[in-house]
Amino acid sequence: MTQPAVTVIVAVYNTMPALTECLDSLVKQSIGADRMEIIAVDDGSTDGSGKELDRYADRYPGLFKVIHQENSGGPARPNNVALSRATGRYVFFVGADDYLGPDALKRMVAMGDKNKSDVVLGKMVAIGKRSIPRAVFKATRNNIPLIGSGALYAISNTKMYRRALIEEHGLRYAEDLPVSCDMPFTLEAYVRSTTISVVADYDCYFAVRRDDDSNITYRARFENRLKVCARALDRLSELGASPELYDAFAIRLLKVDLAWIFGENYLALDAERRAACVRATAALLADYYGDGAFERMQHRLTVPERLRFHWVYAGNPEKLAELVRQDTEGPVPPTLLRDGKAYATYPGFGDTLYGLPDRGYELLGSIADRLGPGTELLSVDWSGEGEDPTDLAVSVRVPVVGDTGSVAVQLVPGKLPKSADVHGARRLGEKEKRSQPAGEISREAAGDGGSTIVRARIPLTRKKAELGLRVRVDVGEHRYEIPVRGTDHPMPLARAWGLNDTYKLAARTDAAGRIVIAIGPLHPAKKSLGSRLRTLVTGSKRK
Fold this sequence. Notes:
By secondary structure, the protein is of the alpha+beta class. 31% of the residues lie in helices and 24% in strands. Helix 6 packs parallel to helix 7, helix 7 packs antiparallel against helix 8 and helix 13 runs antiparallel to helix 14.
């Protein structure tokens, strides 16, 4: 019998009716039944999942191997049982809730064969509220590094592995881990790999979150999550990982796993359980992160991530609850501009009693994501003496406080790049032209204590142009542009401007809702007969 190219392993426990869609996607794989085998292990299902597996095995003889066993309490044992029966050159793990694109296995096997890959990642697509990694799937790549590629944030087992690698190193799932047992497995496979490839130009894997949230991962206790983190860090040390790799993975745990522990799950705990959660997490940080970890890692953490780290070390469940509540329920804390830096003023900012200096609240990198959403048009109209407008009068709320002397509203020619639509604002490149605002500008603190009202009277020029209305904010050496949006705000009526040389003023919003001021002659000069004939002749010659 010819060896299959790939063995697909499905650990199944009570996943009907989603299981049917998963199995359908497997039998429809374009790689062909002669190049694959499917091993499905029913881990004591009680909802008919086992019968559904048997139905597919009867319908597709030779393609399925179905194994029934008593419930083991997690996916580790079913996966290990299936691994012991696998015969394919590669092994691919698929969740019983999820499904594959028709060409997924064909493309991934081709990628693995082309590059002699040990691990192949196929692009993931989220269905429902499922959280998936994105950075690693930005581009198809023959070989990626572990650090800096996003691979450490794609740590689930839903990948294709060279089976020889698994057998050579005896890789198996830890059966004492009820959740996230795939983290140590995938991490070791990564570390032992020579080549890790990515298929990003095709939607390979569709990750589904059930509406009833019954997936075991979403019901995990914090003790189990911390146990997995400790096991993964222990395994990294045993494998002789470099300090750079250890730190990169430790930071990943802070960004992902601590964010999970100290998210909505934390608010659901009573005071006693919150205190226990903080003590257990602090013990893990003390054992695995070492002295000076905060100083070493803080520049790679966001402000909420730094604060979680700090409040856990400080043993302060109440401050953690404050932080989590503000992060999950809002509002976004005000952005303070001071001495060329920006700070997120979460609870505790500026209070030396709690021991975290202001630099712990400093916003590093771009703050475009904080500027765009909170910028709000308050009013816009033509202004001038009598019936002849000469200025544009604008009032805008900008979500910054503190040193707001650089905050201005201006009319800027040219289109914004698409990147400005990602966060509703953008940071200008170092070599981009920086225009100066014209007209009168005033600023005053808003009543909410978290924003500034900027009023501008911008002079208009009799010159044909389309100008974008934008807010300018300087933070140190960086300048930010925020397009002012007016989708839900009435625009001033178009006006004729001037008596002899009459121009038309018009305000509108573009497809993205950004305000555009259009200026042009009310009656454009017509071309002379000679000019029109020359244009006609020239056009004929071009044909």
